[in-house]
Amino acid sequence: MSKINVKIAQFSLISCLLISTFQLKAQKAEPKTLVDIPLEADKTLFYSSNKTGTYQIYKKNDSAEVRITQDDAFNYWGVKVAPDKKKFICYRAPQGLIVKDNNSRNSELWLFNIDGSKGQKLISLSDYKWRSQGSASWSPDGKHLIMAAEVSDKDNFNRNHWHLFLTDSMGKKPVQLSTRSTSFSDPVFSPNGKYITYSALPTGTPYSLCPTKFMEIYVAQIDSASQKIKNERKLTSNEYLDGRPSFLNDNEHIAYSISPGCVNEVEYVDLQLVSINGKSYDLKTDKSVKTNAMCGEDGFIYFQYRPGLTGNSCIARIKSDGTGFTIVYQGSNFSIINPQMIVE
């Protein structure tokens, strides 16, 4: 990419961070619930919500909702429950002004017991001289974390690029998996651990005022010897922002969000499915925002949903064939984001 194109890409990423910050600002009114679908006895839904002010991590089952982070001076988001279901990771940033609040340039990765106790910081940006970090998730065996971080790229005149990193389960011994000097984000493992999927800019992305619209969904493997990406395949090819992929339980299909433009995540984002062979399907397309999809252990795809141009995000679900769309949990004056459904 040209120097101009890289700068525009950085500006676009910053713009998205600011937009996310506006969506994450705390609510002041008494929380009011619009929709609350009862969960089956063996299911627990994890998420982040600002219903009490700052964003905190909650879990909800058939009997109660429990807040499991307790520090109102910080916002917590991006919860990912470990495969053994005994702990979770999430990001944390201090409550504050827009540029200091809930963004990848001010975040720390934390680990908690599943009840929110014994929190410990795993990665601060200063630990590895990263400029930004985000999208951490677990390997299926719980031995590793995979994530994206913005670093000085020695292979591209030390310009800043987002790359994929693998660490141990405590965020130590980071290894850079990606080598192309473009931009990578949102990595996750397949349930069987055979593949990873992520969003990235292809090599040779053409000049554009909105380079992030060329972000595509990829599938690849990790070479155990070199600890680099191998057998990389681009699954989508369009002038849209394809991002936030998540494998379904069949290890063959990936749900992801597709946004037509640089800042249209404010307006609408559709939900699509692509097979690891590159065949795409529409899941839900309309004038709403559908993002942060994750396949639950019950087989439904749970995702963050905002019904219109304005308003609060809630949690919805849909079947992998595009049927059965249901809003599961919605507040009238608070948002609910980053869902993960587990089965006990």
TrEMBL record:
<dbReference type="Pfam" id="PF07676">
    <property type="entry name" value="PD40"/>
</dbReference>
<protein>
    <recommendedName>
        <fullName>WD40-like Beta Propeller Repeat</fullName>
    </recommendedName>
</protein>
<dbReference type="InterPro" id="IPR011659">
    <property type="entry name" value="WD40"/>
</dbReference>
<dbReference type="InterPro" id="IPR011042">
    <property type="entry name" value="6-blade_b-propeller_TolB-like"/>
</dbReference>
<comment type="similarity">
    <text>Belongs to the TolB family.</text>
</comment>
